[in-house]
What does this fold into?
Amino acid sequence: MSKEDMIGILESAMKPGVASVVVNTKDYIYCLVANDAEGSSWKEASITFPDGGVEQKDIPAGKALMLLIEELLRGLPNYVDNLPIAKNEGEIQTAIGRVQGL
It folds into this structure.
């Protein structure tokens, strides 16, 4: 896949009504873009910097969800301080405490 293909995928992520997620870090861009209105099939694509290595594949919805969860739990915490996602039992216990305090 070429960088032009990646640009096309990113442009498709901006179309109205298209479900998509684009993660833009200093080291890579990662995106999941629905191939259809129902979201039954998704396109996963990424490009790394500075080398420009590009990967792309079509995946089913369940796999897209699992990959998004992995990106949120393992990828983004390396780039965002205090990401508000519970990543371990202690952080989940903190969330439970907040609910109990209502």
Notes: The chain has one domain: 3-100. Residues 3-100 form one domain.
